[in-house]
Q: What sequence folds into this?
C-alpha cells in the first residue's frame, strides 16, 4: 500500500517555529487540515502540496515523500 | 472545532429535533383520524409541507445557537474557512447518503410491488429523506474525527 510521508512539522520548526495556524493561513486551509496532513491522516491535493512547499520556499520532494510499499 | 464539523453537528441535532417533530405531529394527526379519508395523501402532503417550513426555521435557530455558543466558549470569531478537506469529507458523506437513499427507495418500490399502500410508501420516503440527511451529518462527524 502506497503512503505519503511529510516533513511539515520539521520544516515549521526550522522556519522560526511557525505555528500550524500560520502555515494554514498562508496555504489557504484550516489548521485542522494541516494537523491532519502532519499526522498522515489526510493526503493533500497537488495544488495544496505545492502551496505548502511554496510557503517553506522548498521543492515538493523536500516536503513530501512517496513510498510504494 | 472547525466550522464544517460544527455545521455537521448542528445538522445532526436539527435532524433529531425535526424527526421528533414529524413523528409527534403526523402520529397525532393519524390518531385523530385525519388520514383515514380518501384525501389522506393530500392532507398528509399539506402537513409535511408545513413541517418542512418549521424544519427550516429550526435549522436556522440551531445553527445560529451553535455559532454563538462556540464563539462564547472558545472566544473565536464566528465563521471560518472551508477548504479542500472539508469538500472531500462533504463529498464522501454525500455519496454514502445517496446510496442509503437509493437503496431505500428501491426497498419502498419493492414494498409497493408486494401490496403496501401508497400512504405507507410516502411515509417511508419521508423517513428515508430525514435518515439520509442525518446519515450524511453523522458520516461527516465520523470522518472528521478519524482524520483529525
A:
Amino acid at each position: 500500500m502506497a503512503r505519503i510521508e511529510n516533513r511539515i512539522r520539521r520544516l515549521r520548526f526550522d522556519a522560526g517555529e511557525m505555528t500550524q495556524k500560520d502555515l494554514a493561513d498562508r496555504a489557504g486551509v484550516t489548521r485542522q487540515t494541516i494537523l491532519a496532513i502532519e499526522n498522515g491522516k489526510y493526503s493533500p491535493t497537488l495544488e495544496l502540496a505545492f502551496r505548502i512547499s511554496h510557503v517553506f520556499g522548498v521543492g515538493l520532494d523536500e516536503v513530501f515523500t512517496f513510498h510504494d510499499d | 472545532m472547525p466550522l464544517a464539523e460544527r455545521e455537521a453537528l448542528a445538522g445532526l441535532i436539527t435532524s433529531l429535533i425535526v424527526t421528533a417533530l414529524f413523528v409527534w405531529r403526523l402520529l397525532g394527526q393519524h390518531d385523530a383520524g385525519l388520514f383515514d379519508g380518501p384525501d389522506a395523501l393530500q392532507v398528509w402532503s399539506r402537513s409535511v409541507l408545513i413541517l418542512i417550513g418549521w424544519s427550516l426555521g429550526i435549522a436556522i435557530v440551531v445553527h445560529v445557537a451553535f455559532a454563538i455558543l462556540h464563539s462564547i466558549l472558545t472566544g473565536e470569531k464566528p465563521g471560518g474557512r472551508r477548504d479542500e478537506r472539508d469538500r472531500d469529507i462533504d463529498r464522501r458523506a454525500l455519496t454514502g447518503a445517496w446510496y442509503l437513499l437509493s437503496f431505500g427507495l428501491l426497498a419502498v418500490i419493492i414494498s409497493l410491488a408486494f401490496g403496501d399502500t401508497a400512504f405507507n410508501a410516502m411515509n417511508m420516503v419521508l423517513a428515508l429523506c430525514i435518515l439520509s440527511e442525518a446519515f450524511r451529518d453523522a458520516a461527516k462527524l465520523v470522518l472528521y474525527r478519524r482524520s483529525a
About this structure: The beta strands of chain A are 2-6, 64-68.
